[in-house]
């Protein structure tokens, strides 16, 4: 009997990746194992409107992404559309572009951290996002994911959409999947600060990324 579940599953991770660190790799790896996607698409931001100006160039951030995710047991695509677009990077615009490219039947799953969940209602046109993709949420130390600690509208929106990995794979958008058993305690801000002090945060960076940073003297190293 033929496999009836032919819907393509694409796992998405956006971010500044300034620089990409082990937390990014661990979260992407976790959801890749959980969802068995057809591909993982990384979307480095052009000009993230909710963050300070980026320190590394777009070319360097893309190069570090290639190094960090080399060897992940899922096809990896680096999508530079937000860099090419210029101006503010809005997730809703990126997802609309991906829908136009990949079609309405593809299951698109966007990874966010608990820190992003806490301010999800500040994202541009945030209520439309569930019409475009699923959202996979990874825990982070210091950020609660229970309803009592989230903005009420965010808590309601996500609680109404809680589902399983199987449910996410079986439809195109609108499922919320939480990974409370996965937590990483690192950030690009902390990594940059350590590098600026002349430290080498080897535990926070993939070895190939740290070598690239040293060779190209990024973040004052």
Unreliable runs, pLDDT <50, ≥5 residues? none
Shape: globular
The sequence of SSEs as H and E is EHEEHEHEHEHEHHEHH
How confident overall, as mean pLDDT?
A: 91
Strand content: 15-25%
Question: Structural class of the secondary elements?
Answer: alpha/beta
Number of strands: 8
Radius of gyration: 17 Å
Task: Give the assembly state of these chains.
Answer: single chain
Distance between the termini: 58 Å
Number of helices: 9
Biggest β-sheet: count, sense, barrel? 6 strands, parallel
Query: What is the helix fraction of residues, given as a range?
Result: 25-40%
Written description of the protein model:
With 221 residues, the chain is α/β, with parallel strands linked by helices. Helices cover 35% and strands 19% of the residues. It is built from 9 helices and 8 strands. It has helices spanning 22-35, 58-68, 81-85, 91-102, 114-117, 152-159, 165-169, 188-196, 207-216; strands spanning 9-15, 39-44, 47-48, 76-78, 88-89, 107-113, 134-139, 176-183. It has a 6-stranded parallel β-sheet with strand order 4-2-1-6-7-8. A two-stranded parallel sheet has the order 3-5. The radius of gyration is 17 Å and the shape is globular.
